[in-house]
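Structure tokens please, single chain.
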Amino acid sequence: MKIYVETCGKKTTLGYRELAEAMWFKEKNGKELEISHVGNDETLQENFFLTLKIDKWLNDSRWKLIKNPIENEDIEIEALREKDVIELGSKHITILTVDKRALYILAIKLAKDLGGRISEDGLESWQSVEMFEKKHKDILCLTYDEANELSLKEVVTMLAEEEPWEY
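Here you go.
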């Protein structure tokens, strides 16, 4: 799944931990959010490069029983060369609700910070943050726990179809 955000020639002021906590949660049951990441505030703010992944099994033990590659979803941020656009993406075309919610929140946070618009169709058309939020309100209105519960059901039948490689 890929989403694009205009940067309008700006750099973000957001930090990786701030984004992760918005995408998933800050603290749950007295325990801090467990994530894996490649990159840090500097790589995000200077180069628009970051990979985030919630360690689902460390935040909910039921995920330890799951044996589907789709449950280990990385969410990546990468600048597109020669364009004032960043690509937000996952490894799979169809992703779990908990990851989709996180990706949508990431797109909204970055678009608001950068004053940009959002594209979901490979840069063909652009929509405002408000239109994007309205379009995806059914997922954005879910709490992390609600999205996690749905995902635990989805993962049983969802196939892991990877995004095609771009050269």
